[in-house]
Amino acid sequence: MVFNYFGHILYIGLLLTNAIAILNEERFLAKIGWSTRSPTSVNQGFGHAQNPNIYGDAFGSTSGVGAGDGGLSIKSKLVNLIGATRTLMRLPLIVVNVLVILYELALG
């Protein structure tokens, strides 16, 4: 009974990791403002600031939730996590997906 729940948790983790790995940065993440690249704006260069959060406190960090850890917000940490998952987990995900498919075909 416990092994059945553990298997479901592994499948959920695999599916969520696959979902993160296939997110396209240009098509999806950039549209919602979660891209690692700097956004290109129409008003760029016409007196508008490149970074809307250019003013920090005396220690160089900006105010906000999660900004105490080196000035990184929760959003920027999630963007870095998505980028790292897409980069580092590409080959291991291929291997694990093939193993899961073979397992399901054999013992399904």
H and E order: HHHH
Query: Which word captures the global form?
Result: elongated
Percentage of residues in DSSP E strands: under 5%
Q: Can you give the mean pLDDT?
A: 74
C-alpha termini separation: 17 Å
Helix content: 40-55%
Q: Work out the radius of gyration.
A: 20 Å
Kindly state the number of beta strands: 0
The total tally of domains equals 1
Topology:
Blueprint lengths: L1 H20 L3 H5 L44 H15 L1 H18 L1
Helix pairs in contact: 1-4
Pfam families: Yos1
Family: Belongs to the YOS1 family.
Keywords: Membrane, Protein transport, Transmembrane, Transmembrane helix, Transport
Characterization of this structure:
This protein has 108 residues and is mainly alpha-helical. It has one domain. It has four helices and no strands. α1 packs across α4. About 13% of the residues have low confidence. Keywords: Membrane, Protein transport, Transmembrane, Transmembrane helix, Transport. Belongs to the YOS1 family. One of its GO terms (biological process) is endoplasmic reticulum to Golgi vesicle-mediated transport. Pfam families: Yos1. InterPro entries: Yos1 (IPR013880).
Primary descriptors:
mainly alpha; Yos1-like protein; 0% strand; 108 residues; 4 helices
Overview in brief:
The protein is mostly helical. The protein has helices at 2-21, 25-29, 74-88, 90-107.
